[in-house]
Amino acid sequence: MDIHHLRYFIEVARQNSFSKAAAISHVSQSAISKMIKDLETELGVSLFSRNSKSVQLTDAGILFLGQSQQVVSMFNNLAAEFANEFKLEKGRLSIGLPPITEATVFAQLLGEFKKKYPQIDMELYEHGSKNVALKIQEGTLDFGIICQAPDNAVFESFSLANDPLKVIIHLEHPLSILTEVDLKDLSNESFVIYRDDFSLHDEIINQCKLAGFQPKIIFETSQRELMIQTVAANLGIALLPSRLCSDLCGKQINAVTLANPQILHQMSVIWRKGRYLSHAAQLWLNFARKYLLQTDV
């Protein structure tokens, strides 16, 4: 049974004639007769009482007519109702953000998106960049913000920023009076860095090794504020993106430019290559790309 069986059945019932129904439906009388016969066989009842002059609905046919009309009406309206639902811009998104992400910018982005698309629900998850990338690959997140160069073989992406790291040092430290330092000048310092699920963890260690030393790490954390407080207690130094160093005044620390080598904090929006993007996901992607590229991230 398909929608054609129902439409032909309804037309025969309306015309009380196989020949008239066939002419209106632009099919042969034998074809429409066979379809009605197949329908009766599938249902196990006679839908019409036939004689040489007319065709009349049986009791079963009258009952089935009402149900068939409802189904055909729903089918006819399906495309229009789907288009209307689609245009309502509803859905759900899951987005992974590392704690190092500049909170204000992304809070404003998400707030503006929610204002424009109130029926799209967003679920936010905080992970280090490595875990964000892993969950994007697994398909458990729709989008992610990562602080590293994305793997173009696995992800689609667009760049948000390349922010140089600065060295944050206690004001009593001799290096705090300098305008810039080289990484090799920090070989005897105690480092406070992000945990190993953050991309900057590996990048800082690798750059230190290239500069000729293994960094002495006294503390690993996922919390920027805890990192700053540790430096403010004069327990060590830390490397942070320059944009995160603008509000450090009054905390007994200074931010000094890291000159050689320059280590960049790269931020990108990623999503899995080849993954189907829902309408809600496409709306967010277009909105985020436009908003973030117009914002001084």
TrEMBL record:
Superkingdom, according to UniProt?
A: Bacteria
Q: Which UniProt keywords apply?
A: DNA-binding, Transcription, Transcription regulation
The molecular function terms in GO held by this entry are: DNA binding; DNA-binding transcription factor activity
Q: Does the keyword DNA-binding apply?
A: yes
Decide whether keyword Transcription regulation is in the record: yes
InterPro entries in the cross-refs = HTH-type_LysR_regulators, LysR_HTH_N, LysR_subst-bd, WH-like_DNA-bd_sf, WH_DNA-bd_sf
**Gene Ontology CC:** cytosol
CDD domains from the entry? Answer: PBP2_CidR
In Pfam terms, one family for this protein is LysR_substrate
Every HTH lysR-type domain range: 1-58
Similarity comment text for this entry: Belongs to the LysR transcriptional regulatory family.
Q: Which PANTHER family match?
A: HTH-TYPE TRANSCRIPTIONAL REGULATOR YBHD (PTHR30419), NITROGEN ASSIMILATION TRANSCRIPTIONAL ACTIVATOR-RELATED (PTHR30419:SF8)
Tell me what this protein is called: LysR family transcriptional regulator
